[in-house]
Design goal:
This protein is mainly α. Helix content is 61%, strand content 11%. The protein has two domains: 49 residues, no CATH class; 98 residues, no CATH class. A hairpin with a 3-residue loop joins strand 2 and strand 3. Helix 1 crosses helix 2 and helix 4 runs antiparallel to helix 6. The two termini are 14 Å apart.
């Protein structure tokens, strides 16, 4: 079942990235997804880590929450850029990472980098080192809300 779901994800991403709905190209796209999946199975990487999170309502809620955080962070960064009097105090912080798997830590680190104003610099087993544009971004991250949400998402696997 997991391989079928992985094949479906590959096909959906191929369709989104290609944007072509021509039957011949759709056929070749499905063939290429099948070949990619077969190759992944052959070398042994089509395992639980290949699709670590089941698609449930919590996954959709996390993505929606992350998109909203990205919008809010974009607005905050735009205000800083447009009003030079607003404070920027760049700083490096260490934020705890409570994820149990590599995939969970990667989702957490990528979520940090996706939100403007913060960039993941290093990922360690129990912490992530982050560059924050100012205290507001650092405080938001150190509140632990994103870590908690990614840990809940990780519990779906």
């Amino acid at each position: 079942m997991q391989r079928l779901v992985l094949f479906g994800h590959l096909a959906v991403f191929w369709l989104l990235w290609s944007g072509y709905l021509v039957p011949t190209l759709l056929f070749y796209g499905l063939i290429s997804c099948g070949v990619a999946l077969a190759a992944a199975m052959r070398v042994g990487i089509a395992d639980r880590e290949a699709l670590p999170f089941r698609m449930e309502i919590r996954s959709v809620r996390y993505v929606a929450w992350l998109l909203w955080e990205i919008v809010k962070s974009n607005i905050a960064v735009a205000k800083i850029i447009l009003d030079p009097r607003l404070p920027t105090r760049p700083r490096i912080i260490r934020t705890p990472s409570s994820q149990r798997s590599d995939a969970g830590r990667v989702v957490f680190a990528n979520s940090i980098t996706l939100t403007p104003g913060t960039i993941t610099l290093a990922v360690r087993e129990h912490e992530i080192i982050v560059h924050a544009l100012n205290d507001e971004f650092a405080d938001d991250l150190q509140s632990g809300d994103m870590d908690r949400r990614v840990r809940e998402l990780e519990n779906l696997s």
